[in-house]
Specification:
This protein is mainly β and about 80 residues long. It is built from one helix and four strands; from the N terminus they run ββαββ.
């Protein structure tokens, strides 16, 4: 079962970002990132609240400088 209902990845300059909407808490989200071996690729992760009107939790991820969009294909199985 998927943890995220929406995953949006984009690039600004040479940095890659993701936004995830999920019904799980931060701890379970980080556990899934760890299982996918993505945790070491995260520079920062923080909550955002624009999606609160639709329910769920929102997280924005800033990936480290070595991460590219093509590296995030495994998020399809998130």
């Amino acid at each position: 079962m998927s943890l995220a209902s929406v995953i949006w990845n984009w690039q600004e300059g040479d940095r890659v970002y993701s936004r995830l909407t999920t019904n799980v808490g931060r701890e379970k989200l980080l556990a899934r990132m760890r299982a996918l071996r993505l945790l070491d690729s995260i520079e920062s992760i923080h909550a955002y609240f624009e999606d609160r009107v639709h329910g769920g939790n929102g997280y924005e991820v800033l990936w480290n400088v070595y991460t590219r969009l093509e590296d995030l294909r495994c998020l399809e199985h998130f």
